[in-house]
Specification:
Layout: H1 7-33, H2 66-75, E1 77-80, H3 99-108, E2 112-115, H4 133-148, E3 152-156, H5 180-194, E4 202-205, H6 217-233, E5 239-241, H7 244-247, E6 263-268, H8 273-276, H9 296-316, E7 320-324, H10 333-349, E8 353-356, E9 366-367, E10 372-373, H11 375-382
Parallel strand pairs: 1-2, 1-8, 2-3, 3-4, 4-5, 5-6, 6-7, 7-8
Antiparallel strand pairs: 9-10
The structure holds beta-D-glucopyranose.
Length: 384
């Protein structure tokens, strides 16, 4: 969750977009006048029209199938393999997915792994936006090792910065404005086709924490376009969709589930933010450290979004999955342990499956240097 995105950042995004547009137009003009001698000149027509990917209707969502309900239950108690495959490139944030992580996560008793992946930095910027074959193979090998352990794998798309209107990260590929949305749909077209033969324990999550330019209705339409494409090759696979404002439960009132029963809804819950994100370098301004947890007031902040999510799930008849919660390691361990235990009980008491953020980085339940779990955190999550 990154609610600290500032006006300055939006201005910079606007400016870089304007510059990109001017550059693209200039290149077209140069190409057109330069007598390119057979050299392919990019034209705006090379970007497919988003309307060739019409959305699924979302006026009569039927509620969940028994298989979606069963899959949500099977997700159970999960953990995010965060800061690995959703870094600009794997390893850039200090972690790669290792066999040790896979073995230990499954052996500890996590029943699902949420796998955040930055597909947008491993695909062409030009239509048909082909995903890099080596990267596809790498993610596929991780998925297959995880599936072989018997866990559910929630494969998502994470940090496609331009999709939210955010500035790309340093060194990240930027694409033409007109390509951003259709590229998202066409990335899913490739992923869905590629993984169509996999076990039903592979679940797709369309997009992590939609926000910014996607807020509200734009996301409803884009998600429905992507789901229609996924359904061409994966008619029954369970797909996870969450609301805007960073999967905030308060935006569930804006979320329209497509007319499809093989769906699970998701929210993220980092309340109380002053506790979970104290000292987090990516939040601006950085929040003061020294905040403990969990007083009755803080517990009420934790459970209020869950109550809202539970009421929405009951009304819409889709199961609810808390895909991220956790407290950064700048908080004291006793408080983090108390927070995790209370969150687990609150989520499970409301019939929700969950995934802790995250395995081995700044929130890590596992110490990648000692190659062992942080026992207090592990027990707070898995109850042993
Ligand atoms: C983001 C991470 C961040 C975490 C907690 C996730 O959704 O992808 O980069 O560390 O939320 O803020």
């Amino acid at each position: 969750m990154r609610p600290g995105s500032s006006t300055l950042q939006s201005d910079m995004t606007m400016n870089s977009r304007k510059i990109a547009t001017v550059l693209a137009v200039t290149m077209l003009v140069i190409g057109a006048c330069g007598g390119g001698g057979g050299v392919a000149v990019p034209t705006p027509q090379t970007i497919p029209d988003i309307n060739t990917y019409p959305p699924l209707a979302n006026d009569a969502a039927p509620g969940a199938s028994t298989s979606a309900v069963a899959t949500a239950a099977a997700i159970g108690r999960g953990v995010n393999f965060g800061n690995m495959l959703e870094a600009p490139t794997e390893g850039a944030w200090g972690l790669t997915v290792t066999d040790d992580f896979i073995d230990k996560a499954a052996a500890a008793g996590f029943t699902s792994i949420r796998l955040p992946v930055r597909w947008s930095n491993h695909a062409s910027g030009e239509a048909p936006f082909t995903i890099d074959a080596a990267f596809m193979q790498r993610v596929e090998s991780v998925i297959d090792k995880l599936l072989a352990k018997g866990v559910v794998v929630v494969l998502n798309m994470h940090h496609y910065r331009q999709l939210d209107g955010d500035q790309p990260d340093a060194g990240e590929l930027a694409v033409a404005d007109a390509a951003v949305d259709v590229r998202f749909v066409m990335l899913w077209e490739q992923l869905a086709a590629h993984f169509q033969g996999r076990s039903s324990r592979l679940v797709f999550e369309l997009y992590n924490e939609p926000h910014g330019r996607l807020n509200g209705e734009p996301w409803n339409v884009l998600a429905a376009r992507a789901l229609r494409v996924v359904r061409k090759t994966n008619p029954d696979r369970v797909v996870v969709i969450g609301p805007t404002s960073w999967n905030n439960a308060s935006d569930l009132s804006l979320l329209k589930m497509p007319n499809d029963s093989n769906l699970i809804a998701t929210v993220h819950n980092y309340a109380p933010f002053s506790f979970t994100h104290q000292g987090a370098e990516w939040v601006s301004p950085v929040l003061p450290v020294g905040v403990t947890c969990c007083s009755a007031t803080q517990e009420a902040e934790m459970t209020a979004p869950l109550d809202g999510a539970k009421a929405w799930a009951a009304a819409k008849r889709y199961p609810m999955y808390v895909g991220e919660f956790g407290a950064y390691s700048k908080a004291d361990d006793t408080s983090r342990i108390d927070f995790n235990r209370k969150m687990r009980q609150a989520m499970e008491g409301r019939g929700m499956s969950w995934s802790y953020w995250e395995f081995a980085a700044g929130f890590g339940v596992y110490d990648p240097l000692k190659l062992s779990f942080r026992q207090g955190l592990l027990v707070s999550l898995l109850g042993r």
